[in-house]
Amino acid sequence: MERKSLVTFKGNPLTLVGNEVKAGDKAPAFTVLDKDLTPVSLSDFSGKVKIISVTPSLDTPVCNLQATTFNEKAQSLSPDMVIINISMDLPFAIARFCSAEGIDRLRTLSDHKDASFGGSYGVLVKELRLLARSIFVIDRADVIRYTEIVTEMTNEPDYDKALAAASKAAS
User: Fold this and answer.
1) Which whole-number Å values give the CA distances from 133 to 14, 48, 140, in the listed order?
2) Which one is predicted more confidently, 75 or 38?
3) Tell me, what CATH number does 78's domain have?
4) Containing domain of residue 49, as a range?
5) What is the arithmetic mean of pLDDT over 21-44?
6) How many percent of the chain have pLDDT more than 70?
7) 66-76 burial string, b = 16+ CB within 10 Å, else e?
């Protein structure tokens, strides 16, 4: 499925590939790669409230800011909550980024191999083979409780709304 003009990059409309997911939907399964190339799936976070922060590439200023902001916010979360960043960056680049930026609380994962996450959550950008900047909050029962697809990919997401949705899902 393709959805046109939901997001732009520097004002240019793009096409999102995959099914749209909405609050109330069962979270689709996905498999991505950890920094050491180990497969990681949604079920690895079973029983936790999950904030999935999606970035096009950690090597850009806004993505860097999004990752470092969520890394900072993760320090004050309860142990039954996790913040995950998924991008199309290679696992080796993700490892280098985390080391350079001191990312130690944000779980950073790569969708580069199969675009499993991007396709399942409808945020794979056809023209760029990157992921659209977005946020998904998934409760302990793997039900989506909040979604945000940032309409202009060079803008930041609404951190406060995502964190509030996660807190509500945890209570």
Assistant:
1) 12, 22, 23
2) 38
3) 3.40.30.10
4) 2-170
5) 96
6) 100
7) bbbbbbebbee
Residues designated as active site = 63
pLDDT in tens, 104-132: 999 999 999 999 999 999 999 999 999 99
Share of the chain above pLDDT 90, in %: 87
The token pair at 43 is 């079920």
pTM of the entire structure?
0.95
Number of structural domains (the chain) is 1
Ramachandran assignment for 95, one of left (phi > 0), alpha (psi -120 to 50 degrees), beta (any other): alpha
What lies within 8 Å, CB to CB, of 9 at 6+ separation is 125, 128, 152, 153, 154
Would you give the end-to-end CA distance of the chain in angstroms?
35
For residues 166 and 171, give the distance between their C-alpha atoms in angstroms, rounded to a whole number: 9
Q: Alpha helices, DSSP H only, in the chain?
A: 61-74, 91-101, 116-121, 159-170
Torsion of CA 137, 25, 125, 135, to 10 degrees: -10
Question: Element (H or E) spanning 147, and its range?
Answer: strand 144-149
Q: Does residue 5 have a pLDDT over 90?
A: no
Q: Per the structure block, which two tokens stand in for 94?
A: 């993700």
| Pairing of the two strands 81-87 and 49-54 | parallel
